[in-house]
Design brief:
Number of domains: 2
CATH superfamily of the largest domain: Chorismate lyase-like
Strand content: 25-35%
Number of helices: 7
Length: 250
């Protein structure tokens, strides 16, 4: 970051967010390592230089570097400086499907854990205009993991009137859409998916083991039956460093 304009732009960008400055800077520095701007084995600017470049106090820079050091990305040496020793890992294996058949297929080697459950609750606010709410829903908070790493936190709402037709083991083995796709007497006449990009709050950061402010993808999925009832609503939060969206155009 040369100076002047870039420094002012960094300060303005950080002022637009409610996330703590040191967390924002940790993300910025992490991106520099990931992009190769701060390459492996290289010495990064001093705390004083970074503070001047970013327009913040030296303590804020030290807090940001503490995060990167805890992640094993940098190492500090007394009288020598701070060096990059590792790049952030990005395993974009978690693909958010955009077609109906893909939404019915569970990911290989993934496990589903039920964190909490409620019965006969009302449907929360949802973005889509399709369908009308049922009288009550079974609400499950589920956490999806692979090889011990959580990648998806989801709130699933299933029409309470249909729950008796769904085997209990299905709630920990199949995708949300699969829960209602094969129920006798029910036809999914309308379904949609809305994807928005956001950042992890405290609860999401805790459940997915990421930092507050890290990027996440919020995915809302809805299924409506032949009577126009919303029989499924699933609000999922995916870790941004593990997911990708691929859309086949032709």
């Amino acid at each position: 970051m040369p100076n002047g304009i870039n420094q002012n732009a960094t300060v303005r960008a950080m002022q637009k967010s409610n996330v703590s400055r040191y967390i924002q800077l940790a993300s910025l520095f992490r991106q520099r390592i990931e992009s190769g701007e701060w390459d492996l084995g290289t010495k990064i600017p001093t705390v004083k230089e970074l503070a001047s470049q970013c327009g913040v106090a030296t303590m804020t820079i030290r807090q940001a570097l503490d995060i990167l050091e805890g992640e094993g990305l940098i190492e500090r040496f007394r009288a020598k400086g701070t060096f990059v020793i590792e790049r952030p890992s990005r395993e974009l294996w978690c693909e958010v499907k955009t077609d109906w058949s893909g939404l019915l297929i569970a990911r290989d080697n993934a496990t589903i854990e039920i964190l909490s459950e409620e019965r006969n609750v009302l449907l929360p606010r949802y973005e889509s205009a399709i369908g009308k709410p049922a009288p009550g829903y079974r609400h499950l908070r589920r956490r999806h993991s692979r090889d011990g790493t959580a990648f998806l936190l989801a709130d699933v709402y299933v029409d309470e009137r249909l729950c008796s037709a769904i085997p209990e083991e299905a709630y920990t083995t199949v995708t949300a859409m699969r829960l209602v796709s094969d129920i006798p007497g029910q036809t999914v006449k309308n379904a949609n998916q809305i994807v928005t990009i956001g950042s992890a709050g405290l609860e999401t950061a805790t459940e997915l083991n990421v930092s507050i402010g890290d990027p996440v993808a919020n995915v809302q999925r809805m299924a409506v039956n032949q009577d126009g009832d919303v029989i499924l609503l699933a609000n999922g939060i995916y870790r941004g460093d593990m997911m990708r969206i691929e859309v086949k155009l032709r």
